[in-house]
Amino acid sequence: MALKTWIFAGLCEKSDLLLYLCKLLASVDKRVLLVDATQSHKYPLYIGLLDKPLEITEFMNFDVACGFTSQVHLEEHLRYGEEKLERYDYVIYDVENLSFCAMETWRDSDLRVWTTDYGVWSLSEGSQWLNALNRQHSELKDMIFQLVYMHAVDTLLESSYIEDYVEGWPVCWEREPIIIPWDEMDMALKLENEHQRQLRMKPLSRRYKKALGILMKLAELDDEHIKRALRSAGRTKI
Asked: Is the pTM of this model over 0.90?
């Protein structure tokens, strides 16, 4: 299959979402590269690669690229090893670094996702970040994004208040937002995975699995493949 590029941008914590998604894609025999384009280069902590900050390494049957300063830097590293991004079926970027991806990657990406929580900092900084991206690449104005709310909680704020906050951003929202509710067991599993450098998906909540299923559908996988991926990933203990 042709390479698909996904960009998950946003300043809230989303590593658990991307790691689960990569594991699901790998479980249906997709070759996946997850690229750490976060400001703090956090993924070595999650995959136990503290002694090799610059590396493309296998983790739970998919690859993770850590320590690169830009997409160009990553591609140069691959060429040095006589490889290309095209060896993968999916390249998924966790983007916090505004200048990491080239303009062409933003423009041609098969899926762009913006992740945020309901916090005023995430919403305010997200607005500034997207406006800065728009100033940097004005030709990308009104790009289409899928909106994902992470760790959402019931709040006394009117839903229209949150909607009005994001409607003014210089992008177009595709479909309804995907909402991943905060769940104590989901958080406990995330912390256990991080500290043990593992990627168990049991007992992930039904609502979290539903959100993952929606994203898998955006990967143009049919329902049977999605169900098989969720069953297979749920049984894996590591």
From this structure: yes
